[in-house]
Design brief:
Number of strands: 4
Strand order of the largest sheet: 3-2-1-4
Pfam families: RecG_wedge
InterPro entries: NA-bd_OB-fold, RecG/Mfd, RecG_wedge
Radius of gyration: 21 Å
Order of helices and strands: HHHHHEEEHE
Domain RecG wedge: 83-175
Oligomer: single chain
Number of domains: 2
Strand content: 15-25%
GO molecular function: DNA helicase activity; hydrolase activity
Organism: marine metagenome
Largest sheet: 4 strands, antiparallel
Helix content: 25-40%
Length: 210
């Protein structure tokens, strides 16, 4: 994805889109360093901007601008109507998965938009949160605790108590894998969530006995 986004400067698109996707390219280059929420946010933002770009290019094409804009100048056979399998590193497995989503050609990938989208700009105070709904809210770390699961030797559980001026809520995150059970990993997470640190949290609210 990092390499593909860098090649967008070969397309006839505005400097604004080049700037946006250049920033995405840098983030994908450090994808392994991102946590789960940061990865989801990056993928959603990328899809949203690819969708907007696709619509923009469709409008330009309707104004008699050539529809044969190539994704790679070195390969003039690759166009928006090319089969998705012609993209570098898209093998049979990925092709089948993309086909299941209704993506058969490169233009389908650009126009693809996820069926579910969490609006992170719709922020709610903690006191107004309701169970079984998706929300985004802003608060400060009040308490932090991470521990190893007693039932699953590969699982670590992190709990953060986040509060705003209205109330508090416990945020739980699960880490599956032995590498997340090391003392150094626990220390790295503790350094990220120091009491008083401001956080933006998103997810489904669940009501528990605690």
């Amino acid at each position: 994805m990092h390499e593909s986004l860098q090649k967008l400067d070969n397309l006839n698109i505005s400097e604004e889109y080049l700037r946006i996707f250049y920033e995405f390219s840098k983030k994908y280059n450090e994808y392994n360093k991102l946590d789960e929420n940061q990865r989801k946010r990056l993928i959603i933002d990328t899809r949203k901007n690819l969708y907007k770009l696709g619509k923009t290019l469709e409008i330009e094409s309707s104004n008699n601008i050539s529809n044969n804009v190539f994704l790679n100048k070195a390969d003039s056979s690759l166009s928006f109507d090319s089969d998705i399998s012609l993209i570098k590193n898209v093998g049979k497995v990925y092709k089948n998965k993309l086909n299941e989503l209704g993506i058969f050609h490169i233009k389908d990938l650009i126009n693809y938009f996820p069926r579910t989208y969490l609006d992170y700009t719709n922020r709610v105070k903690i006191i107004n949160l309701k169970p079984e709904n998706l929300y985004t809210c802003i608060g400060n770390v009040k308490r932090f605790y991470i521990h190893k699961s007693k039932k699953n030797s590969n699982l670590s559980i992190m709990n953060i108590l986040v509060s705003d001026e209205t109330s508090s809520i416990k945020v739980t995150k699960f880490f599956l894998g032995r590498r997340f059970r090391s003392y150094s990993f626990f220390l790295s997470q503790k350094s990220l969530y120091i009491p008083g640190t401001k956080l933006a949290i998103s997810g489904k609210v669940k009501l528990t006995e605690y």
